[in-house]
Every structure is written in C-alpha cells, then in structure tokens.
Design brief:
By secondary structure, this protein is α+β, with helices and mostly antiparallel strands. About 30% of the residues lie in helices and about 20% in strands. The strands form three sheets. The chain has a five-stranded antiparallel β-sheet, sandwiched between helices.
Length: about 280
C-alpha cells in the first residue's frame, strides 16, 4: 500500500549534547518523534485515527559527521478509534502538516530530556529555532525499505571506502549530499577514529522501533485492519453500470499510423483542408 517517509532532524546547536549524552538523546529522538506523529494523527483534521510506523535512527552523514535524525515509515492512513474503518489521507501526497509536527516534536523532546537534567548542557538558542521535519510519499514500503536498510544496519564507514593509511593520515571516499560522484577526504588518524567512534551505539540500544498498530504486541490488530484496507481500495474503483444508465462505450481505438508508400516513413498531419463550398468548374 502507499507509504510516507517522515524525517525528524535534531538542530545543529544540540548535536554536541547528543554526542555527550548519546543514549539519552537517541532514545528521546525515537520516542518523541513517534509521540508527535501519534498526537497529530489523532486530530480530526489530518487523519483522526491511530497510525502505525517504523522508526529508524541514523546518526551520521556520508562523511561521518554528526547528524542525528530519525526516518519514520508510515502507511498512508489511520485506523479509526471505533475500529470500523480505514481513514485515508485527504490528498495522495500529503499526510500531516509538517510545521505543526515540528512544534510538537520540539516540545515533546524538551519534556523528555528535562527530567534527565540535560537541559543545562544544551545551548539556549537551540530551542527557539525551527526544528526540521520533512514528509513525502515514497510509494509502497517494499520500494523504500531497501534504500533505508543499509543506512540503518551498517556502520558509519565500510572497509571498501577507507583507503590505505599513510604517514598518520587516513584517506577515505564519500559522496556529498545530492551528488553521485565520489570525493576524497583525508583526516589525521586520531580525528578519523574519533569521528567513527561517535557513531557507535550504546550496548543494547535498539535503533529500529515500531509504534502504533505496528507494535509487536498489536499483531492481532492487523487481522482487523487488512479487511478494511481491501474495502477502502474498492471505494476508489469506478462504480458499476446501473440499469437506468446506458452502458459505457469503450474508448475509440487509435487509428494506426500511416506510412509513406515511397520513403516508408510516418506521415504527419500538418493541416486539415476544409471542404469546398462550391462545386469545381
């Protein structure tokens, strides 16, 4: 079925705090991003029901810089509170308002890390600025999962991208954002090790989690949702012909292209001559 990919990004001002308190901030990113989506989806204007999602933490860029963000894959729709119907979004390319989602995400993240006494280490200018959230349709889940899996399951730098160490420096290859061409960078060995180790997750940390009706404890709910999906898909089909209406005629067939008998090329209609108003002399 159609799906949406929602991305939550931690502001640059708070990324040093995320590196110093990795377990606390990474947990907060996954939990608050899911909570913000659930709160907004229960509102009657966007959807008005419960959604299901799978969120994955991705803390690095292609050159191993710190960039904590969460990718949430969401089926396009929600389960109604009474469990009687599947609620589809109002538009094919729109799920929830991203500006409202950004404000809810920021507020819930602040509430989450406040009891852990981490706000004193966070700069004050990191909270008033807008937090980036992005939502886009990505087709079916089977199309986007293969592109997300390598960034979630692999490490920050694979062996084939790092080249031979020389004179205390480590050269490696990376691709800039939005580019498909490889670029070469060189870092001192200690800087390369530091950049790599900042993305090693704490022991026992789960980077991929499921929320809503996609939680492992809600598998019995999926047996009620699947029939609703097939019913909602039927509403998208054109209604059948009724006895009071004439049967629909098939669209006229396109005439085959005519060819020139001399050059064997296609004939192109340039202008259609009007019928003469009088008989020829």
């Amino acid at each position: 079925m159609p799906s949406f990919l929602v991305t939550f990004t931690l502001p640059e001002a708070l990324r040093p705090v995320a590196r110093s308190h990795q377990k606390c901030l990474d947990n907060a990113l996954l939990q608050t991003s899911a909570a913000a989506l659930q709160v907004l989806s229960l509102d009657a204007k966007p959807l008005g029901g419960q959604i299901g999602m799978g969120g994955g933490l991705h803390p690095w860029t292609r050159d191993m810089a710190s960039h904590p963000h969460v990718h949430s894959l969401i089926p396009a729709g929600a389960w109604s509170p009474d469990g009687a119907q599947w609620l589809a979004p109002r538009y094919e390319d729109w799920l929830v308002p991203v500006r409202a989602l950004s404000h809810i995400f920021r507020g819930k993240c602040k509430e989450k890390i406040a009891p852990a006494n981490r706000l004193e280490h966070a700069p004050a200018h990191g909270w008033p600025q807008a937090w980036v959230t992005h939502c886009e349709p990505v087709g079916t889940g089977t199309e986007v999962i293969p592109s997300l899996a390598p960034s979630i399951r692999r490490i920050a730098m694979t062996n084939h991208r790092s080249e031979k160490r020389k004179d205390g420096y480590v050269p490696f290859r990376c691709k800039a954002s939005g580019s498909k061409e490889w670029q070469h960078q060189t870092l001192p060995a200690h800087a390369f090790i530091r950049r790599f180790l900042q993305h090693v997750l704490p022991q026992g940390f789960i980077p991929v989690r499921y929320y809503g009706f996609l939680r492992p404890t809600c598998r019995n709910v999926l047996t009620h949702i699947r029939p609703l999906l097939s019913t909602s898909a039927c509403h998208l089909l054109p209604p059948p012909d009724t006895p009071n209406q004439p049967p629909r005629q098939p669209p006229p067939a396109t005439p085959p292209a005519r060819q020139c008998t001399t050059g064997r090329g296609p004939l192109v209609l340039i202008q259609q001559l009007s019928r003469p108003t009088r008989a020829p002399p």
